[in-house]
Amino acid sequence: MREVEALGVPVSAVNPPWWGRRDPHIAHRGSLERLRHPDLEEPTGYLGTMLPIRFSRAEISTAPAEPLGASTESVLHDLLGYETTEIDALRAGGAFG
């Protein structure tokens, strides 16, 4: 890292994800939250980072991720321009579930 920095390139260490669980500053700020799954009532045991900013009168949390494949058809059709018959052929060929 020092060699790259000496060349004038901005550089910084990247900590592993689990590092945040042990950092007292992150714990004090409440920067991690238990992630939620759309099909479960209770949050999971997995942690995710919250927004790094706080608003005095707003409670902000991360929305649950959508189920796997929930946007596949709209991405193929709306963004990539595939016709319904093409999407059906991809599905039949096992390209996605």
Overall geometry: extended
Continuous helix count: 5
Structural class: mainly alpha
Query: What separation lies between the terminal Cα atoms?
Result: 43 Å
Task: Please give the largest β-sheet.
Answer: 2 strands, antiparallel
Give the % helix.
25-40%
Number of domains: 2
What is the number of beta strands? Answer: 2
Radius of gyration: 21 Å
**Strand-residue fraction?**
5-15%
Mean model confidence by pLDDT = 86
Low-confidence stretches: none
Q: Could you state the order of secondary-structure elements as H and E?
A: HHHEEHH
Oligomer: single chain
Strand order of the largest sheet: 1-2
Notes on the protein architecture:
This protein has 2 domains: 1-55, no CATH class; 66-97, no CATH class. 33% of the residues lie in helices and 6% in strands. The chain contains 5 helices and 2 strands; from the N terminus they run αααββαα.
Question: What is the fold's blueprint, element by element?
Answer:
Layout: H1 2-6, H2 19-22, H3 24-29, E1 32-34, E2 47-49, H4 72-79, H5 84-92
Antiparallel strand pairs: 1-2
